[in-house]
Structures are given as C-alpha cells and as structure tokens.
Design brief:
The chain is 52% helix and 13% strand. The chain is of the alpha/beta class. Bound molecules: guanosine-5'-diphosphate (GDP).
C-alpha cells in the first residue's frame, strides 16, 4: 500500500512545527515529499519536477510558513494545482456529433481496451443522448476482433456494420459512411486495427481511414496502467494521426492515476473519459478532481 501524501506531509510538518516557525527549507522538505508521492503515483520525473516548482512558487506566495496547519495548506495548494493542470478547456464528455452522421475514429494499441471502449461509448451515446449509433470494426487482420465488436453490439443493442470478407479498412470506412447516411444514424464509430506496438503500417492505415472518414473526433484509447508508455504512445499517435482526446482505460486497477497528469502535461491533449472495468457501463467522463484526489492518496 502507498502511504498517502496527506499522512506523509502531516508527519513532516509535525516534526517541523515542534521546532518553532517554518523556514523555506522546511517547505522544501515538504515539497520533496510531494515529489516522491507524485513519482509513486507514476507521474514522470520531468512532469513531477515542473509541478513541484509551480507548487513551490505558490506556497511561497501564500505564507504557508505562518499557517497553523502548514501540512493542510500545502496539500490544498498541491490539490488545486493538480486540478488546474488536469482541467482542459473543453467539456470532456461533450463529443462533437452534430451534422449526422458524425464519424468518430477510435485508435490505439491492441489490448488497450479500444473495442470495449467503442462499445461503451456507443451505449452511452444511445442511452444518455438518444443517438442512433452504428459501429464498424476495421481490424481486417484479426477476424476475432471484428466478431468481438459484433457480439458487444448485440449485447448493448447497438448496430454493427455487417462484416464483409476481403475488404480493406478504407473500404469498410466508406461502406460505414454510406450505411450511416442511408440508415439515418447520428453517429458512426470506426474501431481501427490495433497492434502491440506502433509501426508504420498501423499509422499508415489509421491515417488513410482518417482521410476518407474526416472524423469529428479521434479518440485515442490507452491503458492507464502503462504510465509513461501511455504518454509516449499518445505523443506518437497525436503527431502522426492527430487526436482530439484520450480515453484512459483500466483506471479501476491499482494505478494511482499519475499517467493522467503526465498525459495532460506532456501531450496537452484532454482526457475525455476513463474506463473503470470490463462491463459496458464502466466508463465515466474524466473528472480532474477525482484524479487529483487519487494521485494525492
Ligand atoms: P483492444 O484490443 O484495444 O480492442 O482491447 P479490448 O477492448 O479487447 O480489451 C482488452 C481487455 O481489456 C478486455 O478483456 C477488456 O474487457 C479489458 N478492458 C477494457 N477496458 C477496461 C477497463 O477500463 N478496465 C478493466 N479492468 N478492463 C478493461
């Protein structure tokens, strides 16, 4: 188990306050604890460093040293700063789906939870916004993945584009567009092929699909437990495909959520949703406050 940052800081400040007024050095000691807590929460080193510098600037300005509860004051500054960095300027849950049929492109590595997330979002759009959604799997390399989407679709009552053998992903994307227009769908979701690693073919395929579909949203699905790897994947996908948001999956796991902070700080891309389990309802819009609390422990 992790020791929570609150406990850690209380410990540090308890010791310090017994010696009288706090000095700048005392605050520095506390900030070292903040840094360790961030690193333990899987925040990358440069992000943790910058973050602590920002907190230090604020702590100095806010006369933490004169406070009777300096530990609480530092925690509040850290919490507010975490929320500030994590909060984007768009409403994470508001997908751009006007002008039907609106294409949503789903990209990510194999095993990240892309197909599951596609179905979860389709269900959400259907139930919360009353949208008619069509889902299509473009994973021509893995027939099982195409089947998986069809099975999930049947389970949640969302249509999937019939599977036609021998088509290329671009052909499937075009067929999905036509079917969505003719069928009066509001949204069509394109679940692209994933691979274990980013390679030229994966990117070329996703880019070709993007070019024919002209998606309103391109959502990158990444495994929230993979920490810095998730951030690297996001940087590469964004540079090569361009993404409008990130979905962090497996946030129901043991991770402390630090990947969210690194993701936001390094890629600048908003986190839109978090996956919280295997079930079709296990998805929520990203809430900076909750993740901040989780990182702090
Ligand atoms: P894909 O290869 O990226 O399409 O990944 P899948 O959608 O097939 O998901 C791979 C596995 O991860 C499946 O067993 C999913 O049920 C599971 N999974 C997906 N999202 C989550 C999540 O948020 N939490 C947990 N615990 N499991 C998830």
């Amino acid at each position: 188990m992790f020791e929570s940052l609150s406990d850690r800081l209380s410990g540090v400040f308890d010791k310090l306050t017994k010696q009288g007024a706090l000095s700048d050095d005392d605050v520095k000691t506390a900030l070292r604890e903040v840094r360790v807590a961030l690193l333990e929460a899987d925040v990358s080193l440069p992000v943790a460093r910058d973050f602590v510098a920002a907190v230090q600037a604020k702590a100095t300005g806010q006369a933490v040293t004169k406070s009777i509860t300096p530990g609480q004051q530092v925690i509040k500054i850290v919490h507010d700063e975490l929320e500030r960095v994590l909060t984007g300027d768009t409403d994470p849950g508001a997908l751009k789906i006007d002008n039907p049929p609106a294409p949503i492109l789903m990209v990510g590595l194999q095993g990240s939870g892309k197909t599951t997330t596609t179905a979860k979002l389709a269900k959400r759009l259907k139930e919360r916004e009353g949208k008619r959604v069509l889902m299509a799997s473009l994973d021509t390399n893995r027939p099982a993945a195409m089947e998986q989407l069809a099975i999930l679709g049947a389970q949640i009552g969302v249509d999937t584009l019939p599977i036609v053998k021998g088509e290329t992903p671009v052909q499937i994307a075009k067929r999905a567009k036509t079917a969505a227009s003719l069928g009066g769908y509001d949204v069509y979701m394109l679940d692209t092929a994933g691979r274990l690693h980013i390679d030229a073919e994966l990117i070329a395929q996703a880019a070709a699909v993007r070019d024919v579909a002209n998606p309103r949203e391109t959502l990158l699905v990444v495994d929230g437990l993979t920490g810095q790897d998730a951030v690297n994947v996001a940087q590469e996908f964004d540079a090569k495909i361009g993404v409008t948001g990130v979905v962090l999956t497996r946030m129901d796991g043991d991770g402390r959520g630090g990947a969210a902070l690194s993701m936001r700080a390094i890629t600048g891309k908003p986190i839109r949703f978090v996956g919280l389990g295997e079930k079709m309802d296990a998805i929520e819009t990203f809430e900076p406050q909750r993740i901040a609390g989780r990182i702090l422990g």
